[in-house]
Amino acid sequence: MYPLLFKTVFRRMDPERAHHLAFDTIRAAAAVPGARGGVRAVAAPAYPRLRVRALGLDLPGPFGLAAGFDKNAVGIDGLAMLGFDFVEIGTVTARAQPGNEKTRLFRLTGDRALVNRMGFNNDGSAAVAARLARRRHGQRRPYRPDTVVGVNIGKTKTVPEAEATADYVTSTERLAAYADYLVVNVSSPNTPGLRNLQAVEVLRPLLTAVREAADRTTTARVPLLVKIAPDLADEDIDAVADLALELGLDGVIATNTTVSRDGLRTDPAHVASLGAGGLSGAPLKERSLQVLRRLYARVGDRITLVGVGGIETAEDAWERVLAGATLVQGYSAFVYEGPLWPRRIHHGLDRLLAASPYATLADAVGADTRKAHTS
Ligand SMILES: Cc1cc2nc3c(=O)[nH]c(=O)nc-3n(C[C@H](O)[C@H](O)[C@H](O)COP(=O)(O)O)c2cc1C
């Protein structure tokens, strides 16, 4: 059904409009109590074997929706209804901003990929915090009242790089109380200069300030993660891994989109005509996996790794777990696979785990990378 809908409707529409139409439909369904339960029963059956504990949280499974889909925290319950085990909202910046000029999202259907230069279009951290507060107080049972919500923060475009820390701190102070975990995003290619914040001498004070701001704001200790780009050199990945250990960070998310256009099947002239932006989806798979392996080899089980980038199938998700990811996320394949995608991932993962020598997902985390390093 979805492939037909994609071919006949979504594919003919501007990708950003298609996103809003699909997201509005999900939100509308979630607002109808009867429909919500029905969709949930079909899309998100429970898989007790896939339960995981990560970042001090109990999750129904390891598979979350990556940042960027629900930038403003308007559809968390609808997305949980479809079976995502956690939803990372954002990127949210201290000030509301419109993002880059449209058109800014493109499909490379033949590559099962997307190119985006959205540029952190979002309502700003004050509005998003107010929305999260209302949701928390108004949450109705039954139905996953306790969906794990990650909050991903970034820098306001007009704020100079030298003042980036204050911008992140403002968002942290507003949002930490509503975050099950907090992500410092320094890896989007669409905010000029943002990725320079990945250099450890800049990242150290930034992460330290965010940690302190979170601790000032809430008595509960909010897990703090950093999200990195796949375009970092190997030494820089190691440096971020070492910094994460040094600062007692809770996790690293690998990876964001890439600025590379290597290995695409789509006509290079067409790709070039789309202009700048981050590439996501299938072509990102190999590099994201490499970055994850490298991180796991460095940090082992000391911090939580979240694998994201090009995950399309349960096999892809399982490969990330074996490489070292306790949690996995996806975005682009949701566009191509549709609303039953989380269900297929869970079903497949459950079968793969059952057929493996591991009793739990936790036992499987990093098994392949450990083997590669001991043999
Ligand atoms: C349209 C679009 C918008 C995105 N916006 C954000 C964002 O605001 N913050 C962020 O950290 N990542 C953002 N991402 C990156 C995704 O979270 C993810 O890291 C990346 O797409 C790789 O995963 P995928 O191959 O499964 O899509 C965005 C991705 C897409 C396709």
Task: Give a quick summary of the entry.
This protein is an alpha/beta fold. It is built from 15 helices and 13 strands.
Task: Describe what this molecule looks like in 3D.
This protein is α/β, with parallel strands linked by helices. The protein has one domain: Alpha-Beta Barrel (TIM Barrel). 43% of the residues lie in helices and 15% in strands. The protein contains 15 helices and 13 strands. The strands form 3 sheets. It has an 8-stranded parallel beta barrel with strand order 3-4-7-8-9-10-12-13, surrounded by 6 helices. A 3-stranded antiparallel β-sheet has the order 5-6-11, with no helix packed on it. The termini are far apart. It binds flavin mononucleotide. Flavin mononucleotide binds at residues 66-68, 71, 90-91, 105, 114, 116, 118, 120, 152, 185, 188, 227, 256-257, 280-281, 284, 308-311, 330-333.
Q: Which architecture per CATH?
A: Alpha-Beta Barrel
CATH class: Alpha Beta
In CATH terms, the superfamily is Aldolase class I
User: Domains counted in the coordinates: how many?
Assistant: 1
What is the mean pLDDT? Answer: 95
- Rounded to the nearest angstrom, the radius of gyration is 19 Å
Tell me the major beta sheet. 8 strands, parallel, barrel
Stretches where pLDDT is under 50 for at least 5 consecutive residues are none
CATH topology (fold) name: TIM Barrel
Specify the helix fraction band: 40-55%
Percentage beta strand: 15-25%
What is the strand tally?
13
The hetero molecules present are: flavin mononucleotide
Helix/strand order, N-terminal first: HHHEEEHEEEHEHEHEHEHEHEHEHHHH
The main sheet orders its strands as 3-4-7-8-9-10-12-13
Number of helices: 15
Distance between the termini: 46 Å
Structural class: alpha/beta
Q: What global shape is seen? A: globular
Function: Catalyzes the conversion of dihydroorotate to orotate with quinone as electron acceptor.
Pathway: Pyrimidine metabolism; UMP biosynthesis via de novo pathway; orotate from (S)-dihydroorotate (quinone route): step 1/1
GO molecular function: dihydroorotate dehydrogenase (quinone) activity
Subunit structure: Monomer.
